[in-house]
Amino acid sequence: MHMADLYHTGLVVKDLRSSIETYGALMGTEFTPPQLRCLDLRDDAAEYHVDLTIAYSRQGPHRVELIEAVPGTLWDVREGAPTAHHLGIWCDDVPGESAKLSAAGNPLLATLAADPERATYLAYHRLPDGSLIELVDASARDRLEAWFAGAEYAGPAGRHARPSE
């Protein structure tokens, strides 16, 4: 991992639409329309499904990802807790970097359920201080940059996404 590959900071918020307005006005930026991402994930114990509603700042190069809270999941918001959730990092080798993070004592919290043997496409790891790192497959960079710029989202095959209601 390299600092140059850090491309977003994820914030978990209670009300996505309100936060888009607040952060947009505060930072003088526009956000993508809210989008529902339906993810089949796994951790060390089980496979599970989560629906995340997200938006990204359009301006960069470092972007803000807003994620509407999902109670009882990794994307929950607790009273008094900071909403800073994770740092997103482009990664050319998600399985390899994820294995290195795990071996160094940074547990894997979630990855796509596509492969039961290793992390694929994205991987969330908890660092010793409690913060989270999200490794994101660098092959998604062009698709995501196009979406940030205003194109329709074109996710990889097998991933579900649609505009949020």
Automatic annotation (TrEMBL):
PROSITE patterns: VOC (PS51819). Gene3D superfamilies: 2,3-Dihydroxybiphenyl 1,2-Dioxygenase, domain 1. Residues 5-138 form the VOC domain. It holds the Pfam family Glyoxalase_4. InterPro entries: Glyas_Bleomycin-R_OHBP_Dase, VOC_core. This is VOC domain-containing protein. It comes from Pseudonocardia halophobica.
